[in-house]
Design a protein that fits this description.
The chain is α+β, with helices and mostly antiparallel strands. The protein is built from 12 helices and 8 strands. A hairpin with a 4-residue loop joins strand 2 and strand 3. The model has no long low-confidence stretch (mean pLDDT 95). The structure holds flavin-adenine dinucleotide (FAD).
């Protein structure tokens, strides 16, 4: 990549009507108005909400109808998730299954896996988690050591995953494992879909510094899963995972995590804002708009069946910088007391604590910059 490929964002159908219908649906079904919950929306688990959203046709939108999906275009889905995130809807329960596990099963999975998992995902009832990171294999994913050995009964899995968001509330983990004994780096890796209630799987909570339980350690102690748990081709796990990361890195969730703060700032500023506050609102809006264009063209490139790894990394890096800086920029300009209880202060408190993690999840800043540099031919 020498320049950012700007693909036109051109979804089929009437997207204005799609947005209007969804906004009306959200007005009738949004379970909470709490501003802090809204800011953390893609980590907020609410199975009732996910089920209702699925029944309304807003989950599994791009999956084929034969598997219970909506047969919609990926860019129609983009419009829907943008609306959901901007509204702060609690989409955490089905988020990972809808965003990446479902599409990955559709692309690489067997017919049996598609029939078994996709209808539940499309209903907003089946939740998945991402089994990539391990102690010693976070940024350096090719150092994965969790092993799966093929036996006559199936795959025997031993090892440990870490930082697994939502494992304690999910049904399945899509794990990157080493299936070829003696293999090194990114060769010999495969993906397995492991039901989390299989004997030998232990899930231990990791509580973050805000006191939340999102993360877990997942241990595999001689876990036996059927041969049919292999997703895609044996030994091709690296290729499949990098395709998955393209889906993970470029969506609107990479710049909208602090969106509720911008809305609260505008509300607090009132009709006659302080000029410095008005200036900041203008800057943040312009930056967000630019990020949105980059994210939408990356989505269009993905929808065209291409692999925009570098563009997705640019969106993630710039989006994370934006959503991470926003709380600090707002804190620098408004009268903020740590003990205040108004919406703006509560949001600032929550985001100042949470935002350092924004540039870690999905790949750290240094690693993402390395991918961009390679894409630009600089290393
Ligand atoms: C909110 C959140 C949710 C997450 N959810 C999941 C999940 O659901 N599933 C999952 O598998 N993982 C998840 N992760 C883990 C996340 O993907 C890893 O934390 C991340 O990839 C970094 O790995 P690490 O923590 O092992 O850090 P390390 O790899 O140990 O890195 C430590 C530091 O060294 C730097 N570094 C490492 N290698 C290089 C290099 N080659 N060049 C320059 N600098 C380098 C890193 O940038 C970082 O600053 C989540 C993390 C967060 C914060």
């Amino acid at each position: 990549m020498q320049s950012f490929a700007l693909y036109p964002f051109d979804p089929p159908g009437d997207t204005v009507a799609l947005r209007t219908d969804l906004r009306a649906w959200l007005a009738a079904n949004q379970p909470t108005d709490d501003v802090v919950a809204r800011a953390n929306c893609w980590a907020s688990f609410d199975p009732d909400f996910s089920r209702a959203l699925g029944a309304a046709g807003y989950v599994g939108m791009t999956l084929p109808a034969i598997y219970g999906g909506g047969d919609r275009h990926p860019l129609e889905r983009y419009v829907v998730i943008e609306e959901l995130l901007a509204a702060g809807a609690p989409v955490g329960a089905h988020w990972i299954a809808d965003r990446q596990t479902g599409p990955l099963i559709l692309r690489y999975g067997s017919e049996e896996q598609r029939q078994r998992y996709l209808p539940g995902i499309a209903k907003g009832e089946l939740y998945a988690c991402i089994g990539l990171s391990e102690p010693g294999a976070g940024s350096d994913l090719a150092a994965v050591r969790t092993s799966a050995r093929e036996t006559s009964e199936g795959w025997r899995i031993n090892g440990q995953k870490i930082w697994t968001t939502g494992a304690h509330l999910s049904h399945v983990i899509l794990a990157l494992v080493r299936t070829e004994e003696g293999s090194e780096r990114n060769a010999g890796l495969s993906q397995l879909l492991i039901d989390l209630d299989t004997p030998g799987v232990t899930i231990r909570p990791i509580i973050d510094m805000a006191g939340n339980h999102d993360f877990n350690e997942v241990f595999f102690d001689d876990v036996l899963v059927p041969h049919g748990a292999l997703v895609g081709e044996r030994g091709q796990g690296w290729k499949q995972v990098t395709a998955e990361l393209g889906l993970e890195r470029s969506g609107p969730e990479r710049y909208l995590s602090s969106h509720a703060l911008l809305v609260a700032l505008i509300d607090a500023a009132g009709a006659d804002p302080d000029p410095a506050v008005a200036g900041l609102i203008g800057e943040l809006t312009a930056e967000m708009w630019t990020l949105r264009q980059l994210s939408m063209s990356t989505a269009a490139k993905l929808a065209a069946g291409e692999d925009p790894m570098v563009e997705a990394s640019v969106v993630k890096e710039l989006g994370n910088a934006f959503e991470q800086d926003m709380p600090r920029r707002v804190q620098a300009i408004v009268n903020f007391d740590w003990d205040d209880e108004d919406d703006l202060a509560r949001l600032l408190r929550a985001l100042l604590i949470a935002s350092p993690s924004f540039s870690l999840r999905g790949g750290t800043r240094e690693v993402i910059r390395g991918i961009i540099a390679r894409g630009l031919g600089l290393r």
